[in-house]
Amino acid sequence: MMMLSLLLAATTVAPPVGDNAQTYQLAPGVESRYRLFVPENWKPGDHWPLVVMLHGGGATENGPFDRDPAFRPRLFDAARAHHFILLSPRGHKGGWGAQLLVKGGGTGLPPRGTYRWPAPGALTGPPPDIAPKSVQDVALAQQDVFATIARVRAAYGTLPHPYLMGNSMGGQGTLHLAQDQPRTWCAISPSDGPFDPSSYPYARAKGTRAALFVHGDKDNVAPIESMVAMASGFEQAGIPTRLMVIPGGGHSDSWHRAMPAVFDFFARNPCDGK
Length: 274
What we know:
single chain; alpha/beta; Rossmann fold; eight-stranded mixed sheet; two-stranded parallel sheet; 7 helices; 20% strand
């Protein structure tokens, strides 16, 4: 029996550390990928926090790591300093489960999981050309987030309640998942996400532990006024909330400049005991 136990221990392969990519079956006939960074000093038996990073529109799971190669070393160093494991899902055809209404939408709250884009007069750039997605695609995009979290938790023993962040479309996804699964997340940090704040169900996000909103004051895609109003709505709902405005920050780079503060914010809101 002892020899068998030793043999089994010897043949057990520890999951990879460092920067790596994984492929899996999201659904029958649907393959997906995710990107993972695990600090090199992680070892089996450790239980570290997981930070889920949602990429922006038109990107893939590689976006948060590769869009600015000069930023990648700083991102990984910050993860090492905090003992954070970083996960970037692909998100089936984008959207993260949020549906956006570019035109109209009527008054009052739209159907659950559907949000209005800021009014044309509020945009600081041209309105987007958003291709409609099927109900199945939207559901698979959201399922991809939770399926990858489950896979990483099984392999690396991450803590039960991850952190969630994302920029642009990833910021929209962060806000959507905060109200759809509010008790899942330790804390969230949406950045530069175009949103009509009047279409958001703030009361449904009340299970979220804390929120840090990030927005650049030179964003030429999403109006900063929308994010300011979103942060105010979270605060009024009783969620501890901070707003960080990045002077000179644009639509795609503000979260880079805010990243050390975002990780510090996450570290000050630990997952244990939620």
